[in-house]
């Protein structure tokens, strides 16, 4: 099979399916240590979406995509086209369900349902249930911050900040970490927030998403150099929490982000 984005690859590795993965694309970072068998490395087909020719050359019978937009005429081909070529497709359900403005907030149970479903698809239900049980235990052990701190999730953007809204993975992670999302009322997973609104939100802490193409340090420098944002309490007091991008889309590493953020918040 071929995976698109890091979260599908990481889920399949956690389920013990490394031998079935013939190629991967659009990786958001390196594969974490311990997730894959010793010596295993992904066969990277492309840094972005591979062409259909590159995909077909890998001879997959299955494509697991992180987002519905990964499948279409401009890239791998539509799901109907791929099926006609003998390639089944699967898109992470949270990416399908929680992208609209009418969505209910994503919950960890939704992520666990995805893990269970994918496990059943690949005869790895025992592994899936083990992952879910472990993560439920880890969630219960998270330090209780009880929403005392408000937080802004700064994902990307310079001209207009792109931040975590109230229905997607960022909000789910912040709630589980005991933080109050200043954009919780925004019925979107991520959205563009004008600088004036961002400054007015004046959170206690700012979560900076660290990505290879847009580092947390770059975001911090942007905030500190912005004429208005530099006056925010979190910026002046250097109350930043950094989280790895690959842990911020629905998957097996969301729990890592919760633990990291909760522990950092407890020391603020």
Automatic annotation (TrEMBL):
First and last residue of the signal peptide: none
PROSITE patterns: FE_B12_PBP
SUPFAM superfamilies referenced in this protein's UniProt entry, alphabetically: Helical backbone' metal receptor
Domain Fe/B12 periplasmic-binding residues, every copy: 1-268
Gene3D superfamilies: Nitrogenase molybdenum iron protein domain (3.40.50.1980)
InterPro entries: ABC_Transporter_SBP (IPR050902), ABC_transptr_periplasmic_BD (IPR002491)
Top-rank taxon, per record: Bacteria
A UniProt-annotated Pfam family: Peripla_BP_2
PANTHER family per UniProt: IRON(III) DICITRATE-BINDING PROTEIN, VITAMIN B12-BINDING PROTEIN
Similarity field: Belongs to the bacterial solute-binding protein 8 family.
Annotated protein name in UniProt: Iron complex transport system substrate-binding protein
Organism whose genome encodes this protein: Leucobacter aridicollis
């Amino acid at each position: 099979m071929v995976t698109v984005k890091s979260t599908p690859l990481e889920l399949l590795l956690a389920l013990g399916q490394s031998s079935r993965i013939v190629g991967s694309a659009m990786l958001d970072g390196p594969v974490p240590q311990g997730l894959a068998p010793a010596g295993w490395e992904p066969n990277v087909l492309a840094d972005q979406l591979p062409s259909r020719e590159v995909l077909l050359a890998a001879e997959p019978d299955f494509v697991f995509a992180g987002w519905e937009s990964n499948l279409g005429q401009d890239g791998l081909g539509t799901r109907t086209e791929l099926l006609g070529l003998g390639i089944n497709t699967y898109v992470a359900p949270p990416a399908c369900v929680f992208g609209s403005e009418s969505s209910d907030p994503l919950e960890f149970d939704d992520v666990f349902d995805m893990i269970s479903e994918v496990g059943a698809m690949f005869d790895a239900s025992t592994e899936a249930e083990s992952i879910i049980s472990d993560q439920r235990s880890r969630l219960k052990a998270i330090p209780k911050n009880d929403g005392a701190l408000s937080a802004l999730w700064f994902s990307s953007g310079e001209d207009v900040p792109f931040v975590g809204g109230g229905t997607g993975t960022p909000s789910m992670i912040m709630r589980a970490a005991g933080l109050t999302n200043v954009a919780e009322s925004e019925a979107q997973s991520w959205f563009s927030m004008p600088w004036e609104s961002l400054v007015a939100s004046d959170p206690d802490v700012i979560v900076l998403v660290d990505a290879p193409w847009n580092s947390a340090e770059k975001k911090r420098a942007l905030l500190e150099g912005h004429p208005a944002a530099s006056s925010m309490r979190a910026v002046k007091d250097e109350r930043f929490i950094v989280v790895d991008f690959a842990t911020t889309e629905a998957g097996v590493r969301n729990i890592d982000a919760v633990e990291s953020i909760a522990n950092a918040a407890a020391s603020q």
